[in-house]
Design a protein that fits this description.
Length: about 475
């Protein structure tokens, strides 16, 4: 039995849109009221989560959409999943919510079992975890871990801090506050906080008006599709970008302590990194003594047909840190080298040290993915959907440019000719009952749940065929 049939027997058969515009009048009214106390300007519509079910999201006007955006890639199993509701009603969840423990100082006696459920789903080669509150927080925590690790290696494992380090750090001066950099990539998105903002390069609006570190941005490969027909050109593109990475690390004005990369740049336009590129970065970081961080915030937890997208590349030896959030509904980073545990307590620390309630949900999500073989399902449905999109591409080549995501589950995207055309397509898709998102200036991205099936793909493709014909 499929997970949709098993858990969502009452899931709608088809989308239903009752209003002539979106947001509809009830959403418009509620957004106006919300706007008096909260910035509601980015909202698409007001959702009714009580009525949303499985792969369908319902809005305040009663419109029922097939949701292929899933809270910006953050719903793993579908709305109102009964197993997650069961976890939410558990005694350990009540304790986590009512007596929220300060995990660093007063860890709960069930914390070990909660974390081990998550670690069963960890990327290959990773067996330790540090938890955070969001994707941006996970990346910032990873930077802290990388900087402490990098300096410990320079200082000598086990060496104490010098008197000079202890005094200068209180004045934000070297050597206590060293000048170190994290290398990222153009078009990357790693968050909207201060350090994460400095490695984000997707849109100006993400980082305008706040100070940034002077950190380098390399070029992410831009491939020619289809990949199978352009292997030589794409290998040359990989090599071009790898040279830029090495040149930046070896010539930057301050030492580059870490490198962070998305295996598929998501907000920046669904740009893919090849197995060769991701492995070559590992070779470079080992050669140059740089910490290698993979950001799996959007690509992780099954969306590409593997638990973690970078596992497609089988990077050896395993990367140093892997950050996560979104579909796990928790956040943090995985690691394996004990030296990433700081030499002193209270260095990687805050009041909460993560959110145990969210960790409980993450563990339940991991169990459901494993027990229901959802990675295999995502890969199967992704292949089915991609084949249908290829047929649409043959009919409308200018509306399906650079179709990408083959053999990457349902993590699929394509480009249109202009941002106006892309935005018009997304608007029309909503009116046809499909909630779909965009990224960068030209791209449409698909981010369904892991309970998305062939029947849902058929509905999406039918809506797409009508919407592109309307353009």
């Amino acid at each position: 039995m499929s997970i949709a049939a098993k858990y969502y027997p009452q899931e709608p058969k088809v989308p239903v849109v009752k209003t002539s515009s979106i947001p509809g009048p009830e959403s418009v009214k509620e957004l106006a009221q919300l706007g008096e106390v909260f910035d509601a300007r980015p909202a698409y519509f007001v959702a009714d989560y009580e009525k949303s079910l499985g792969n369908y999201i319902v809005d305040a006007d009663g419109n029922t959409y097939l949701d292929v955006y899933a809270q910006i890639a953050s719903i793993a199993l579908g709305y109102n999943n009964p197993k997650l509701i069961e976890a939410a009603q558990s005694p350990e969840m009540i304790r986590a919510l009512v007596d929220r423990p300060a995990l660093g100082n007063f860890p709960s006696k069930d914390l070990n079992s909660i974390l081990r459920k998550i670690l069963k789903f960890a990327p290959k080669g990773q067996d330790k975890i540090w938890s955070g509150l969001s994707g941006a927080d996970a990346n910032e925590l990873a930077f802290k871990a990388a900087f402490m690790y990098y300096r410990a290696k320079q200082r000598g494992v086990g060496a104490e801090f010098s008197a000079e380090e202890n005094s200068t750090v209180m004045k934000n001066e070297e050597p206590g506050s060293p000048h170190l950099a994290v290398l990222s990539f153009k078009k990357a998105f790693h968050g909207r906080l201060f350090a994460s903002g400095s490695v984000t390069c997707s849109k100006p609006i993400h980082k305008l008006d706040f100070p940034a570190f002077n950190w380098p941005h390399a070029e992410y490969p831009s491939y020619t599709f289809p990949l199978a027909e352009n292997e030589a050109a794409n290998r040359a593109e990989d090599d071009r970008c790898l040279k830029i990475v090495e040149d930046l690390i070896t010539s930057w004005s301050i030492p580059v302590a870490a490198l962070i990369i998305e295996p598929i740049q998501s907000e920046g336009g669904d740009n893919h990194g090849s197995k060769y590129f991701l492995q070559s970065l590992r070779d470079l970081t080992l050669k140059l003594g740089v910490v290698y961080i993979i950001d799996e915030v959007q690509t992780g937890v099954g969306a590409t047909g593997k638990a973690w997208c970078h596992e497609w590349a089988d990077i050896q030896p395993p990367v140093d840190l892997v950050t996560f959030s979104k579909k796990f509904q928790s956040a943090g980073y995985f690691f394996h080298d004990p030296l990433f545990v700081p030499n002193k307590p209270y260095r990687q620390f805050n009041t909460w040290c993560g959110e145990p309630a969210r960790m409980i949900i993450a563990g339940a999500i991991a169990e459901e993915i494993t027990e229901n073989n959802l990675l295999d399902q995502c890969a199967r449905v992704g292949d089915y959907l991609y084949a249908k999109l290829e047929k649409l591409q043959s009919q409308y080549p200018d509306k399906f440019q650079r179709l990408r995501g083959q053999n990457r589950g349902t993590f699929i995207a394509w480009d249109l000719s202009s941002s106006a055309e892309r935005d018009a397509l997304l608007k029309d898709l909503k009116l046809k009952g499909c909630n779909v998102g965009g990224c960068a200036e030209l791209s449409v991205r698909l981010r369904p749940t892991l309970s998305f099936e062939e029947k849902h793909a058929d509905i999406l493709v039918e809506a797409l065929s009508q919407a592109v014909a309307d353009l």
